[in-house]
Amino acid sequence: xxxSAAEVSTKKTFLKGKxxxxxxxxxxxxxxxxxxxxxxxxxxxxxxxxxxxxxxSTTVIDxxxxxxxxxxxxxxxxxxxTLRKMIxxxxxxxxxQTDPGKYLAIDxxxxxxxxxxxxxxxxxxxxxxxxGAVQLDEFVKQKERVVDYRTKWSGIRPSDMxxxxxxxxxxxxxxxxTKDRIIVGHAVxxxxxxxxxxxxxxYIRDTQHLAAKHNVTSSKRPALRNLVKQELDVVIQGGExxxxxxxxxxxxxFRLHRKEWEKGFRPLxxxxxxxxxxRKRVESSEPSAPTPPGxxxxxxxxxxxxxxxxxxxxxxxxxxxxxxxxWWATLGASGIAGKGSMKL
Length: 344
Hints:
By secondary structure, this protein is α+β, with helices and mostly antiparallel strands. It has helices at residues 3-22, 33-38, 80-87, 151-154, 167-178, 188-195, 207-213, 224-232, 243-261, 275-285; strands at 74-75, 78-79, 103-113, 119-129, 134-139, 146-148, 182-185, 204-206, 306-310, 317-321. The strands form three sheets. Strands 3, 4, 5, 6, 7 and 8 form a six-stranded mixed β-sheet that branches. A two-stranded antiparallel sheet has the order 1-2. Strands 9-10 form a two-stranded antiparallel sheet. Strand 3 and strand 4 form a beta hairpin. Helix 8 (224-232) crosses helix 9 (243-261). It starts with a helix and ends in a 23-residue tail after the last strand.
């Protein structure tokens, strides 16, 4: 073998060794099913960091497990145990407690429409009465394509839209149910806004506004979950929201402070007595003013029955009543001072 051939052989051997150091080429490995059947996995895997379906959590804890439903503690005449049971729907109602009554709590859930789902559209409306009994719980059919159902917060899914009703139908039902009743809500102006409804101010009890006004919390706009945790020691909205639970929680907070908060509102007028009837009663109680002369007549006056002349010297009023149809003939009876003038 010549020297040049030996060098070439040495280079090939060096390159092969270098390729071997980098590792073998990537190849698919067959799964050893014998190990799976025997129960011993091929490799260990940390289950604490394994993937889970989006929107679900492997560490969700039932909030009811941490709630004390047997406490005897009361505040302002309200039992904490009863209010906590009401929030989670654990109460049994009598026939009278299922009626709408005077107070109704409302809460709404939204979905995202428009560009990037940034616009909010009404998807669910829930109304409960003073005792927490559900009066209305309806899903609203969407007129636009839903970009984001916001399930993580709203709890709304595409399957809920199957039994949804038209917006106009739900709006009409809510308006009829809340008429002449007090609405209780947390930032309730947002709920009325998406419903395209208005409600008289004396018939609104906003727990967010009232809590800040009466110094229940230091925040001017407390979140509902924080207010419920502070006042009732109950955790809500830990995962997907429920408009029924939120409405009941809002009513529970209101009931806890109702006696104090209602002092700032005037007594409501009796239903059925309109403003026109009230105005008539006020007018009838006031003494009637004397009617000016000539105004007791109905119709259009000719203006020829009375002539009033004000003289510049005495500035007194003199009324000359006509007794005949030719009233102009009597103007010269008092004498004429000069051409083109007359004196009365």
